[in-house]
Design brief:
This protein is an alpha+beta fold. It is built from two helices and nine strands. Strands 1, 2, 3, 4, 5, 6, 7, 8 and 9 form a nine-stranded antiparallel beta sheet that branches. A hairpin with a 4-residue loop joins β3 and β4. α1 packs antiparallel against α2.
């Protein structure tokens, strides 16, 4: 039964299939949106403490099912939901520009993460 702990990592249940992308924040849960809405959500996250953005694909792209981000003291924390036998989270700290690039590449089905840049999220 998931989620379950595997060492310091949590393994979550894989996201069920869906028709298209979804975009979520604290206030929004959108199924019909474009790049403008993604940018608006990211720009709000960059300035509003505690705000997060989650972009989920209809199915995993290069094992990445979703990209989520929030602000951290050191910059933007971008997390990838990597599907396998359950979903594991990996993160890196990056700039606002790189975060936006990751979200738009993922939305455009062109994001191939360099996993050497990411570390497992520990719980």
């Amino acid at each position: 039964m998931l989620p379950q702990k595997d060492g310091n990592e949590m393994v979550f249940e894989n996201v069920g299939s869906q028709k298209g992308f979804t975009l979520e924040t604290q206030e929004l849960d959108l199924e019909d949106f474009g790049k403008e809405e993604i940018m608006g959500c990211l720009q709000e996250m960059f300035v509003i403490p505690g705000e997060f953005v989650v972009l989920t694909a209809p199915e995993a792209q290069h094992k990445v099912r979703y990209v989520q981000a929030c602000m951290d003291d050191d910059g933007v924390e971008v997390e990838l939901g990597i599907e396998g036998e359950g979903t594991r989270l990996y993160y890196k700290i990056c700039s606002e520009e790189e975060c936006s690039s990751i979200f738009f590449a993922f939305y455009g089905n062109t994001f191939v993460p360099n996993m050497e840049e990411y570390k497992p999220v520990e719980f």
